[in-house]
Design brief:
Strand order of the largest sheet: 2-1-3-4-5
Largest sheet: 5 strands, mixed
Order of helices and strands: HEEHHHEHEHEHH
Structural class: alpha/beta
Length: 145
Protein backbone atom coordinates (compact mmCIF):
# COMPACT_ATOMS: atom_id res chain seq x y z
CA UNK A 1 0.00 0.00 0.00
CA UNK A 2 1.21 3.47 -0.91
CA UNK A 3 2.47 5.30 2.20
CA UNK A 4 0.25 8.30 1.53
CA UNK A 5 -2.90 6.21 1.15
CA UNK A 6 -1.85 4.42 4.32
CA UNK A 7 -1.70 7.82 6.06
CA UNK A 8 -5.23 8.58 4.78
CA UNK A 9 -6.41 5.22 6.13
CA UNK A 10 -4.83 6.04 9.51
CA UNK A 11 -6.81 9.30 9.51
CA UNK A 12 -10.01 7.36 8.73
CA UNK A 13 -9.32 4.96 11.58
CA UNK A 14 -8.66 7.90 13.91
CA UNK A 15 -12.03 9.38 12.96
CA UNK A 16 -13.73 6.06 13.66
CA UNK A 17 -12.01 5.82 17.07
CA UNK A 18 -13.41 9.28 17.89
CA UNK A 19 -16.94 8.11 17.11
CA UNK A 20 -17.00 9.63 13.65
CA UNK A 21 -17.30 8.51 10.05
CA UNK A 22 -14.16 6.66 8.87
CA UNK A 23 -13.04 8.73 5.90
CA UNK A 24 -9.51 10.14 5.83
CA UNK A 25 -7.46 12.29 3.52
CA UNK A 26 -3.98 13.72 3.08
CA UNK A 27 -2.65 16.41 0.76
CA UNK A 28 0.85 15.76 -0.54
CA UNK A 29 3.27 18.28 -2.05
CA UNK A 30 6.81 17.36 -3.10
CA UNK A 31 6.48 13.91 -1.50
CA UNK A 32 5.53 15.44 1.87
CA UNK A 33 2.18 15.56 3.64
CA UNK A 34 1.18 19.22 4.02
CA UNK A 35 -2.36 18.59 5.30
CA UNK A 36 -4.12 15.64 6.85
CA UNK A 37 -7.62 15.20 8.10
CA UNK A 38 -10.62 13.00 8.66
CA UNK A 39 -14.35 13.37 8.63
CA UNK A 40 -15.26 15.34 11.77
CA UNK A 41 -18.96 15.95 11.16
CA UNK A 42 -19.98 14.02 14.26
CA UNK A 43 -17.13 15.14 16.51
CA UNK A 44 -17.47 18.87 15.66
CA UNK A 45 -21.17 18.98 14.77
CA UNK A 46 -20.05 20.33 11.40
CA UNK A 47 -21.92 20.01 8.12
CA UNK A 48 -18.75 20.53 6.05
CA UNK A 49 -15.82 18.81 7.75
CA UNK A 50 -15.48 15.85 5.45
CA UNK A 51 -12.04 14.20 5.31
CA UNK A 52 -10.85 16.25 2.35
CA UNK A 53 -12.16 19.53 3.77
CA UNK A 54 -10.42 18.79 7.09
CA UNK A 55 -7.16 18.11 5.22
CA UNK A 56 -7.48 21.45 3.41
CA UNK A 57 -8.20 23.20 6.71
CA UNK A 58 -5.17 21.59 8.34
CA UNK A 59 -2.93 22.41 5.37
CA UNK A 60 -3.57 26.07 6.14
CA UNK A 61 -2.87 28.82 3.65
CA UNK A 62 -0.86 27.54 0.71
CA UNK A 63 0.05 29.21 -2.54
CA UNK A 64 -1.93 28.42 -5.67
CA UNK A 65 1.29 26.95 -7.10
CA UNK A 66 1.64 24.59 -4.14
CA UNK A 67 -1.90 23.28 -4.61
CA UNK A 68 -1.38 22.91 -8.40
CA UNK A 69 1.63 20.73 -7.65
CA UNK A 70 -0.17 18.62 -5.01
CA UNK A 71 -2.00 15.31 -4.92
CA UNK A 72 -4.88 14.59 -2.57
CA UNK A 73 -5.36 11.06 -1.26
CA UNK A 74 -8.76 10.14 0.09
CA UNK A 75 -10.07 6.83 1.35
CA UNK A 76 -13.46 7.34 -0.34
CA UNK A 77 -14.53 8.87 -3.64
CA UNK A 78 -14.96 12.63 -3.06
CA UNK A 79 -18.47 14.09 -2.85
CA UNK A 80 -19.59 17.19 -4.75
CA UNK A 81 -18.46 19.56 -1.98
CA UNK A 82 -15.00 18.06 -1.65
CA UNK A 83 -14.61 17.77 -5.43
CA UNK A 84 -15.49 21.47 -5.68
CA UNK A 85 -12.70 22.34 -3.25
CA UNK A 86 -10.26 20.15 -5.19
CA UNK A 87 -11.22 21.99 -8.40
CA UNK A 88 -11.17 25.41 -6.72
CA UNK A 89 -7.64 24.95 -5.40
CA UNK A 90 -6.31 23.41 -8.60
CA UNK A 91 -5.22 20.05 -7.22
CA UNK A 92 -4.26 18.10 -10.34
CA UNK A 93 -4.33 14.51 -9.05
CA UNK A 94 -6.71 12.60 -6.79
CA UNK A 95 -5.95 9.11 -5.49
CA UNK A 96 -9.09 7.38 -4.21
CA UNK A 97 -9.03 4.41 -1.87
CA UNK A 98 -12.35 3.04 -3.11
CA UNK A 99 -15.56 4.01 -4.88
CA UNK A 100 -17.66 0.88 -4.40
CA UNK A 101 -19.51 2.03 -1.29
CA UNK A 102 -19.93 5.58 -2.63
CA UNK A 103 -19.24 6.97 -6.10
CA UNK A 104 -18.57 10.68 -5.81
CA UNK A 105 -17.84 13.27 -8.48
CA UNK A 106 -14.97 11.50 -10.23
CA UNK A 107 -16.41 12.30 -13.68
CA UNK A 108 -16.58 15.99 -12.76
CA UNK A 109 -12.95 15.96 -11.62
CA UNK A 110 -11.87 14.23 -14.83
CA UNK A 111 -13.87 16.75 -16.88
CA UNK A 112 -11.62 19.43 -15.35
CA UNK A 113 -8.48 17.54 -16.48
CA UNK A 114 -7.77 16.24 -12.98
CA UNK A 115 -6.19 12.79 -12.92
CA UNK A 116 -8.24 10.36 -10.81
CA UNK A 117 -6.75 7.04 -9.76
CA UNK A 118 -9.00 4.57 -7.94
CA UNK A 119 -7.15 1.87 -5.99
CA UNK A 120 -10.16 -0.25 -4.91
CA UNK A 121 -8.28 -0.94 -1.67
CA UNK A 122 -9.90 -3.86 0.13
CA UNK A 123 -8.97 -2.22 3.44
CA UNK A 124 -10.90 0.94 2.50
CA UNK A 125 -13.87 -1.05 1.17
CA UNK A 126 -14.09 -3.20 4.30
CA UNK A 127 -13.78 -0.18 6.60
CA UNK A 128 -16.71 1.58 4.94
CA UNK A 129 -18.88 -1.54 4.57
CA UNK A 130 -18.52 -2.31 8.29
CA UNK A 131 -19.30 1.30 9.21
CA UNK A 132 -22.33 1.57 6.91
CA UNK A 133 -23.76 -1.73 8.19
CA UNK A 134 -23.34 -0.63 11.81
CA UNK A 135 -24.45 3.00 11.30
CA UNK A 136 -26.89 3.27 8.36
CA UNK A 137 -28.70 6.34 9.72
CA UNK A 138 -25.49 8.29 10.27
CA UNK A 139 -24.13 7.25 6.88
CA UNK A 140 -27.33 8.34 5.11
CA UNK A 141 -27.21 11.67 6.95
CA UNK A 142 -23.62 12.25 5.82
CA UNK A 143 -24.27 11.55 2.15
CA UNK A 144 -27.51 13.51 2.14
CA UNK A 145 -30.05 10.76 1.63
Amino acid sequence: MDKFMQAAIEEAQLGLSEGGIPIGSVIVHNNKIIGRGHNRRVQNGSPILHGEMDAFENAGRQSAQTYRESTIYTTLSPCAMCSGAIILYGINRVVVGENQTFLGEEALLESKSIAVEVLQSQECIDLMKRFIKANPTLWNEDIGE
